[in-house]
């Protein structure tokens, strides 16, 4: 076996971000009971935004049964979009136009907030501003996208419809239409989460790992968490940021865990210039999406499947990656795409594409955050805003959108 092949084999089933620099997050071993203002269960991107926000004026303990950043955050392709999985017009059919508009505007504001935090905290995570190109597909065709672009523009979102001729001329893509939007971004999700956790640590937060929370009991003054270390964690508030490992007793109506696949090309892959500034996704089921990273790798994903455990099957990984690559080359036939990394992960979907952020029923002082759909990272920003407002005794004007 040649050295090159060995390298490639090692990278099968391995996320591109495993090899990122700067992922060190110091952790402590729990050797006795502790008491804090806020306990956050989960050291992924949701726990990281939450910890960074709350550690500014609270004592915070982040608990994870694994090393930090090794849940779905490490698998993320990190398209940081404000466009929700369901178009504004389709979301309006489900939750009413006024609520759908609020959801879109809130996501737009969350991407801006994310960029501001990264800038203010000086987090090095390869954050880049990006446009998005949403291609007509088998779910929404030309007419639906025209109406969608108009509905978005009507509330001040930077979306424009492109017809087939303009799409071909500017992007070399043959489809019946697309929506070009401004204001999204991309980043290295592991570096982003690590930077946020270290920022929280600078404000006094402690990351405890490995610590599995096995039971939670609330009383009028707070919550007691029982852990597999035998030591209890006492907190005035607890926030479950457990990704797609749903905590018992938290309702998730209409939500399901599915599997999804992704791959990345070699560095410095030759690509059309527009691709450096543009995230691409399509209105199809299953859908294809892709974007470039700063080192010139092309990151491509999709082929979602309903089975929650399918992402663990190595034979499926191989098949899915071949089909993702084929689809990409059908869309951009001149591309030279050599696969370097391929991986899969669990992913959560909700019927509206909106996350679930809210109090845990029948458990005072407890919150749960589940960032569903293709916008999980954008939603982790919103979750940190909604939950921190509640813990500080304030209300968030959009909290109702995310509560089951
Ligand atoms: C392949 C793929 C591509 C994606 N692409 C995008 C994208 O382009 N854009 C986007 O915005 N989102 C994307 N997502 C979704 C996004 O990555 C997720 O929404 C996000 O990573 C969820 O972060 P989290 O912190 O909530 O969960 P996780 O990162 O999974 O962290 C949860 C943590 O909780 C810990 N935990 C769970 N239960 C317990 C317990 N009882 N005790 C202690 N610890 C516990 C786990 O060990 C884990 O570390 C993608 C996801 C996948 C899989």
Can you walk through the features of this model?
The protein is of the alpha/beta class. Among the domains are: 17-75 and 191-252 and 353-402, FAD/NAD(P)-binding domain; 256-349, D-Amino Acid Oxidase, Chain A, domain 2. 29% of the residues lie in helices and 27% in strands. It has helices at residues 3-10, 45-54, 88-95, 97-121, 142-153, 164-171, 189-202, 314-331, 376-391, and strands at residues 34-41, 60-63, 79-80, 128-135, 159-162, 178-186, 206-208, 213-219, 222-227, 232-240, 256-265, 278-282, 288-292, 298-305, 339-349, 356-359, 366-370. The strands form two sheets. Strands 3, 4, 5, 6, 11, 12, 13, 14 and 15 form a nine-stranded mixed beta sheet that branches. Strands 1, 2, 7, 8, 9, 10, 16 and 17 form an eight-stranded mixed beta sheet that branches. α2 (45-54) runs parallel beside α7 (189-202) and α3 (88-95) packs across α4 (97-121). It is globular, with a radius of gyration of 21 Å. Bound molecules: flavin-adenine dinucleotide. The site of flavin-adenine dinucleotide has 37 residues, from α2, β11, β15 and α9. Flavin-adenine dinucleotide (FAD) binds at residues 41-47, 63-66, 70-73, 75-79, 212-213, 241-243, 245, 260, 262, 301, 345, 347, 371, 374-378.
Mean pLDDT: 93
CATH class identity of the domain at 17-75 and 191-252 and 353-402: Alpha Beta
Q: Which fold name fills CATH's third level, the topology of the domain at 17-75 and 191-252 and 353-402?
A: FAD/NAD(P)-binding domain
User: How many strands, which pairing sense, and closed or not: the largest β-sheet?
Assistant: 9 strands, mixed
Instruction: Provide the CATH superfamily of the domain at 17-75 and 191-252 and 353-402.
Output: FAD/NAD(P)-binding domain
Percent of residues in helices comes to: 25-40%
The secondary structure category is alpha/beta
Q: What is the 3D form?
A: globular
Strand and helix order: HEHEEHHEHEHEHEEEEEEEEHEEEH
Roughly how many Å apart are the termini? 53 Å
Strand content: 25-35%
Q: Figure out the total of helices.
A: 9
Please tell me the CATH architecture of the domain at 17-75 and 191-252 and 353-402 by its name: 3-Layer(bba) Sandwich
Radius of gyration: 21 Å
The set of bound ligands, ions and cofactors reads: flavin-adenine dinucleotide
Q: Low-confidence spans: pLDDT under 50, at least 5 residues?
A: 1-9
- How many beta-strand runs? 17
């Amino acid at each position: 076996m040649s050295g090159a092949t060995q390298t490639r084999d090692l990278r099968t089933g391995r996320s591109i971000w495993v090899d990122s620099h700067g992922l060190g997050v110091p952790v402590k071993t729990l050797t006795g009971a502790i008491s804090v203002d806020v306990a956050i269960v989960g050291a992924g991107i949701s726990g990281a935004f939450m910890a960074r926000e709350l550690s500014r004026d609270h004592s915070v303990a982040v608990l994870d049964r694994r090393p930090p950043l090794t849940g779905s955050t490490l698998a993320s392709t990190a398209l940081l979009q404000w466009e929700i999985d369901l178009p504004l017009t389709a979301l309006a059919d489900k939750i009413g136009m006024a609520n759908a508009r609020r959801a879109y505007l809130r996501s737009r504001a969350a991407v801006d907030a994310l960029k501001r935090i990264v800038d203010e905290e000086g987090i090095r995570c390869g954050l880049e501003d990006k446009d998005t190109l949403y291609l007509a597909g088998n779910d929404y065709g030309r007419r639906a996208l025209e109406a969608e672009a108009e509905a978005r523009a009507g509330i001040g979102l930077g979306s424009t419809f492109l017809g087939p001729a303009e799409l071909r001329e500017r992007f070399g893509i043959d489809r019946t239409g697309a929506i070009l939007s401004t204001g999204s971004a991309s980043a290295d999700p592991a570096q982003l989460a690590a930077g946020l956790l270290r920022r929280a640590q600078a404000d006094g937060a402690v990351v405890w790992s490995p610590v599995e929370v096995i039971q939670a009991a609330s009383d009028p003054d707070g919550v007691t968490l029982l852990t597999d270390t035998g030591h209890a964690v006492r907190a005035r508030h607890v926030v479950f940021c457990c990704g797609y490992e749903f905590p018992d007793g938290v309702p998730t109506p209409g939500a399901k865990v599915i599997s999804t696949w992704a791959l990345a090309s070699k560095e410095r892959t030759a690509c059309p210039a527009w691709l450096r500034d543009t995230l691409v996704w399509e209105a199809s089921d299953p859908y294809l999406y892709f974007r470039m990273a700063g080192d010139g790798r092309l990151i491509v994903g999709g082929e979602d499947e309903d089975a929650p455990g399918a992402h663990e099957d190595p034979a499926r990984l191989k098949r899915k990656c071949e089909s993702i690559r084929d689809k990409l080359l059908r869309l951009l036939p001149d591309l030279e795409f050599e696969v370097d990394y391929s991986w899969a992960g669990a992913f959560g979907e909700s019927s509206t594409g909106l996350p679930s952020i809210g109090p845990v029923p029948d458990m005072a002082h407890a919150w749960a955050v589940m960032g569903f759909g293709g916008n999980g990272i954008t939603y982790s920003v919103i979750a940190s805003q909604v939950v921190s407002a509640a813990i500080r005794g304030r209300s968030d004007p959009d909290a109702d959108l995310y509560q089951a």
